[in-house]
Specification:
The protein is α+β, with helices and mostly antiparallel strands. It is built from four helices and six strands; from the N terminus they run βββαβββααα. The N and C termini lie far apart (about 55 Å).
Length: about 110
């Protein structure tokens, strides 16, 4: 009923709790990305073959597992002490499906 596996050095344990436990968005993974190329790579791979795009960097893969693909610069901008800048970034992100770093930086700069 359990399996242990490792991905990129991170160990995971999965449990088959039976049919009374449904698979929901409460189980999800976050992928932190340093570049737009990484964001695009993971987004494209995880939405392939029946995956579904959602809002704010969220998606579901072909198995229904939820993922959020997050450029690390987004976190930095959202934590800026200038609340006006972080609010502009938040508003820009809320309009996106896949996160676009160039657009986030433009919002951060007030453009």
């Amino acid at each position: 009923m359990t399996i242990e596996f490792e991905v990129e050095g991170q160990k995971f344990t999965a449990l088959n709790g039976g049919p009374q436990f449904k698979f929901t968005e409460s189980i999800s993974f976050v992928v932190n990305c340093g570049t737009q190329e990484e964001v695009d790579y993971f987004w494209d791979k995880l939405t392939a073959d029946g995956g579904q795009e959602s809002q704010c960097g969220w998606l579901k893969d072909k198995f229904g597992l939820s993922w959020q693909i997050v450029p690390t610069v987004l976190i930095d901008m959202l934590h800026d002490k200038d609340s006006r800048k972080s609010e502009h970034v938040m508003q820009a992100m809320l309009q996106m499906q896949k996160i676009d770093i160039k657009k986030l930086k433009a919002a951060y700069a007030g453009k």
